[in-house]
Design brief:
Length: 180
């Protein structure tokens, strides 16, 4: 058996989570294990069988992907997917790490000619950052937003939205707070 490397993935508590698996070959049998204990097994052409505490919260799809419904703290761990096509056995390993998405924090600073807003969040996955300004319909996809000082309207609020998977959090600041 060729042992694959272990891919680390971050899941968000309370979300539904699907392991990123896409098997293209014709499969004869699939076994998913968590920390060496069997979670799901599928011997074609029968229906999948589920085991243990994930049994009533997991769904095994025909392409090999396993979905866990409503992630809980205890779902973290090492998951191993083994499957057999008509020729040989394959193995994929995942490390599922759970985290909650925090509220972001906004810092601002001014230079001679611009106001710079920076959005940060302490999170181990890679986030999508979006800024929106209350006086502007346009959204900016960036962790940092620079506004020329001559364009700063002190009545404007800036909102930073962070997104990971299906969950979003946001924070807001009034631009007048940033001015010296």
């Amino acid at each position: 058996i060729a042992h694959g490397y272990q891919k680390e993935i971050v899941g968000i508590m309370g979300e539904n989570f699907t392991f990123p698996v896409q098997i293209d070959q014709k499969i004869v049998e699939i076994i998913w294990k968590k920390n060496k204990h069997k979670v799901a097994e599928w011997e074609y052409p029968n229906k999948p069988t589920y085991f243990g505490h994930l049994g009533n919260r997991s769904v095994l799809m025909e392409n090999g992907s396993l979905t866990i419904v409503n992630l809980e703290k205890d779902d973290a761990g090492i998951y191993e997917l083994r499957y057999w096509d008509s020729v040989k056995e394959h193995q994929l390993n995942f490390k599922l790490v759970l985290d909650s998405l925090p509220n972001p924090e906004i810092n601002c600073s001014t230079s001679d000619d611009e106001l710079v807003l920076n959005c940060t969040a302490n999170f181990q996955g890679s986030l999508i950052y979006t800024w929106k300004l209350s006086n502007n319909p346009h959204r900016y996809q960036n962790q940092e937003l620079s506004i020329p000082l001559k364009n700063v309207d002190i009545t404007t609020n800036a909102t930073c939205i962070i997104k990971y998977s299906q969950t979003e959090r946001s924070a807001e600041i009034s631009l007048i707070q940033c001015l010296p």
